[in-house]
Inverse folding.
């Protein structure tokens, strides 16, 4: 699903996306603000502060507190992101803008639903570590997806061994406060891993409120 993916408590008590099979988290970045348009909320948009997770499969934004509609987290599959651009204004903070196809029924690049416009503002510190890792993983995933005409998954393009090597050789920007995860030092244990690969489907209730995120034990 796109909205409210399953979350678990990480080792330090923070909420973290529950990993899919063959998913490895690369980093966590706090102090970000996410603006997302076209989602179902009280004002048909969402703006929240929280943390951003990057894995070999997706970006996940987790808000510090849920929206009154129940929206607390959003899943950005790397293969569904398009027109992404790093913006570095003279005045203001660095931000990543783009569009992401909704990963729900009738969504995706071949679906009927339009993509969501998004912008992620990095309110605290630089982005040298984050952007290099994000750009490399996203470009590989999207290229593999396009070449396979939609049959590929992001994890196919970014297998665990490749990600481990990428992270071990990545430039660590001292001004970037991201927490980087090595393959053997993940934020959650194997017991918290989801049993199956992503299955994207609508997660709206008939009352137009997001279904509970389902915090896993």
């Amino acid at each position: 699903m796109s909205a409210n993916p399953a979350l678990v408590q990480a080792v330090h008590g923070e909420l973290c996306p529950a990993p899919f099979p063959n998913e490895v988290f690369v980093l966590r970045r706090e102090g970000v603000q996410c603006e997302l348009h076209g989602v179902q909320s009280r004002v048909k948009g969402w703006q929240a502060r929280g943390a951003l997770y990057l894995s070999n499969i997706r970006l996940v934004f987790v808000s510090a507190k849920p929206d009154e509609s129940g929206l607390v987290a959003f899943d950005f599959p790397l293969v569904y992101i398009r027109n992404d651009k790093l913006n570095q204004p003279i005045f203001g903070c660095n931000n990543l803008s783009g569009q992401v196809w909704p990963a729900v029924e009738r969504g995706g690049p071949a679906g009927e639903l339009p993509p969501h416009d998004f912008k992620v503002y990095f309110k605290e510190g630089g982005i040298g570590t984050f952007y290099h890792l994000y750009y490399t993983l996203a470009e590989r995933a999207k290229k593999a997806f396009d070449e396979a005409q939609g049959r590929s998954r992001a994890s196919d393009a970014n297998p665990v061994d490749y990600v481990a090597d990428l992270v071990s050789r990545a430039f660590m920007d001292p001004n970037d406060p991201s927490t980087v995860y090595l393959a053997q030092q993940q934020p959650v244990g194997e017991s918290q891993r989801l049993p199956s690969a992503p299955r994207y489907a609508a997660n709206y209730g008939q009352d137009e409120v997001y279904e509970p995120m389902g915090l896993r034990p």
